[in-house]
Design a protein that fits this description.
Mean pLDDT: 84
Largest sheet: 2 strands, antiparallel
Order of helices and strands: HHEEH
Radius of gyration: 16 Å
Number of helices: 3
Distance between the termini: 23 Å
Strand order of the largest sheet: 1-2
Number of domains: 1
Number of strands: 2
Low-confidence stretches: none
């Protein structure tokens, strides 16, 4: 969320992403479970958006500094 705040000041964007991030999970048998961490697997918006931001700061920036001649292409969370 810190990285996201660097890219937007829009309160409604931050609000909805936070809501998606903490939304409970419903199992196939109907049981609802509160999540205590992580992102929902295969999330439509949250997983790709936040993973892309994470990889931008953790992977892309590091590679640019430590391996500047290495050519690489990254799409979302795949390199």
């Amino acid at each position: 969320m810190q990285a996201l705040r660097k890219h937007t000041e829009s309160e409604w964007v931050l609000l909805y992403i936070e809501r998606w991030r903490i939304a409970p999970m419903q199992h196939p048998d109907g049981v609802i479970e509160q999540r205590t961490g992580g992102m929902p697997q295969g999330g439509v918006i949250i997983s790709p958006l936040l993973m892309n931001l994470f990889l931008h700061y953790v992977f892309d920036k590091r590679m640019a500094i430590h391996e500047p001649r290495l050519r690489l292409a990254r799409y979302a969370d795949d390199a």
